[in-house]
Amino acid sequence: MQNWKIESKTAEQGHQLPVLAHVDVLVVGGGSAGVAAATTCGRQGLKTMLIEKYGFCGGAAVAGLSGTICGLYTATDEGEPQQVVFGFAEEFRQALLQRGGLTEPQRYGKTYTVTHDPLMWREAADDFLLEAGVEVLYHTAVTGVVMDGDNYQGVVLESNAGRSVVMAKRIIDASGDAAVVARAGGEYFFGDNGVIQNPTMFFRLGGVDMDKYLEFYGEDTICPTKVTEKILELNASGEYQLPRHKIWIFPTTRPNELMVNATRLAGQDGRVLNVIDPVDFTEAEVFGRKQVREYARFLTHFVPGCENGYVVDTSVEVGIRQTRSIEGVSKLSNDDVVNCRKDEDGICRSPWPIELHSGTKPKLHWLMNDWYDVPYNTLIPRIGDNIIVAGRCLSAEHEALASARVTAQTFEYGHAAGAACVLSLKHDKPLRELQGREVRAQMNLGDSRL
Prior knowledge:
Blueprint: E1 5-8, E2 19-28, H1 32-43, E3 48-51, H2 59-62, E4 68-69, H3 87-99, E5 106-108, E6 111-115, H4 118-131, E7 135-137, E8 141-148, E9 151-159, E10 162-173, H5 179-183, E11 188-190, E12 203-206, H6 210-217, H7 225-237, E13 248-251, E14 258-261, H8 278-302, E15 310-314, E16 324-326, H9 334-338, E17 346-350, E18 354-356, E19 363-365, E20 372-375, E21 387-389, H10 398-404, H11 407-426, H12 436-444
Parallel strand pairs: 2-3, 2-10, 3-7, 10-21
Antiparallel strand pairs: 1-8, 4-6, 5-6, 8-9, 9-10, 11-16, 12-14, 12-15, 13-14, 17-20, 18-19
Helix pairs in contact: 1-4, 1-11, 3-4, 3-11, 11-12
């Protein structure tokens, strides 16, 4: 084995480890972006490996139980849902729908979303990856990166079998946390001068009389004013501790069940929690579960139809909205989002509002009857070759990320990253030299083979 220098916080430089595999494309992370990226590469005949720390794919949508595919539809004051994002996101949506694992569009303020079954999400992802010939390693994490100068050459893996190396011609960092870029010493930042969005603990409530519930709550998944007012009243009385008073509740595909997005997790000392730090991550998990019980108590006592409700489960991990963002060749700005800026090198549309979770009430800035484009170069780190990111760790300003991070878009970032790797390897061209319009044309070919 060549004497590669391994950049890692835990591995000694120059330490020799067994090489597990040589692949064309290595995808790190099996969330929506990772599944889309790996499937796209595998379908084109590239030798593709995906590694995932859990025993299933899904990322924030499944482990985090976010439970919705947001970002498919425009915002409007009237009319039926208008879908403007398709591609791999639409293909996966259709697969879930065919399994019975997806609701019809549900009202979310001025736009729409759909709720999915997390178990069926896992199964659909497995099928996509198997059919594309992707080698999947679950229960495996990246602990280091193999570098040759600024060139990414592979990663160091850790599993119960020990440590090994996978060498790859191209790496897609779909970890959501820029885990590969960070371990290689790449540039990244946290939100607005370190201030990031709050994590949350999702939960599902069973035993609900849905007719009675909907009659009281209404069809909009964002809670009505009367629910907010009741939360504020109970907090003022000292009977409850409900830190977020604008909550969102979604009927699921399962009978008599609701998915609840209500908690707001901050440190017990009031600090912003950054789940990159295991101390903060642990605090979020422990106190997230406590908040779930408090919100479930509120629902069963004060929301008609929920009287006999019970907590079915909480998320495997807290719902993570934001951690590291890379310093990219381009950066999606807050103005790009607010002004619905179009870009000839865009690889994805986003009609989703700025949905900023900070404080007791989420901030929503709607993009009415419009969308913006996310440029290709937001996926390319400013320094480093053979690497591209996909998912919420793209290069974006704080409020811009609060719009760009949702599931329909992360599917398409993965789709774009996979298409870019296909073009890069086919034409022996660095990822950073590709144009977004080239990548978009490859994405639009769908499942056509090279």
